[in-house]
Every structure is written in C-alpha cells, then in structure tokens.
Design a protein that fits this description.
The protein is α/β, with parallel strands linked by helices. It has a single domain, classed as 3-Layer(aba) Sandwich (Rossmann fold). The chain contains six helices and ten strands; from the N terminus they run βββαβαβαβαβαβαββ. Strands 6-5-4-7-8-10-9 form a seven-stranded mixed β-sheet. A three-stranded antiparallel β-sheet has the order 1-2-3, with no helix packed on it.
Amino acid sequence: MQRSGELVIFANGKPLMSSRMHGSEEALATLACAQARLLDAPSVLVGGLGMGFTLRATLDTLPPSATVIVAELLPAVVDWNRGVLGPLAGEPLRDRRVSVALGDVSETLRAHRHAFDVVLLDVDNGPAAFTSPANGALYGDRGLALIHRALKPGGVLAVWSAWEDRKFEQRLRYRQFRVKVERVRARLKRGGPRHTIFLGYTSAA
C-alpha cells in the first residue's frame, strides 16, 4: 500500500514494514559484515528481501569481489523489488554480485555446507514468528544447527527482531554461538522504536 509517499507491506492486515523506517535493517547488515568486508571474496546469505534495505547495506559494506545470495519465499516480493520498490534502496537486485534463491531460506541453508561468512536473517519479525508460525522453526534448535553448519569457521549469524528475546539468546549459546546483542533505533539517530539485533559468532577453528 502507498500512503502519503510512504510504501507499506502488510501481512494478515497488519503493517509488516515501512519505507520510512529501515535504519535497523541497515544496521543488521553493517554490524554483521564488519569482519567480512575485510575478506578477499566474502560470501553472504540474506534471508528475507523485504524492501531491499538490508541487501543494499550489505552490498555497500562488502567489496566488489563478494557474492550475495538473497533467499525470498514470496515471488511477489521479488517482483516488487524489481518494480515499484526498486528505487527505494537503489535497485540492489541489479547488482552483479547478487543472485536470488526463491523459496524457504532453510532450503538454501541446507544446500550450502560451510559456505557463508555471514548469514543475515530478517524473516518474519524475528524469533517470535509474526506472519507464519512455521517461520519459528528457523530460530529453533534444529534451525540454528542448520545455520551453524552453513557458516564457515569464524562466520557470523545476524538476526533482526522487533523484540528482545532472552530465550533465543540462550538457544544461540546452547548451539555454540558467541552472542552479542545490539539495540538500535528504527530510524537510527532520528529515533523511532527500538529493535534488537542478535549477533552469533562461530569459533574460528
């Protein structure tokens, strides 16, 4: 929906994301890729395309040699980003470093063992599934084990969440991630509600 120059994506009649508040989605990428940007040819998986802001920030952080896979469940979201949503984030899908994997991000994770330096997840509204209860499995023990296996040694998992979640922090630690939690504003320095970014680091060896 478009209203007063703002584009909003709704899920089940409730606003899921807005073009006016995307600072925390950008912070998800910049925080997670802080180490990967120094690598010769980093490989990154972005789970959830949304309005393209996380992908844009990922591309802006990484070197020209990077490869980025975007896993998106809904073909319509990809179509919107190639159309009306594309200019919002500077047409990130046109970047030659990007490939799109249509389908559940779990399928992409399962197909790539020790392949990614960074896995970014902005699926649903975080560990507490908002649009579909099935999304919660990605943040459970089996889902985290799948992510851990898809990461290279020394890799980073970053998860965007609308809320804090102490149980999810504990689950990350149980799955052998070193955990750091950041609280960022939806509009960064311009304010807005606070969102949570979970960072999980795997051991280097």
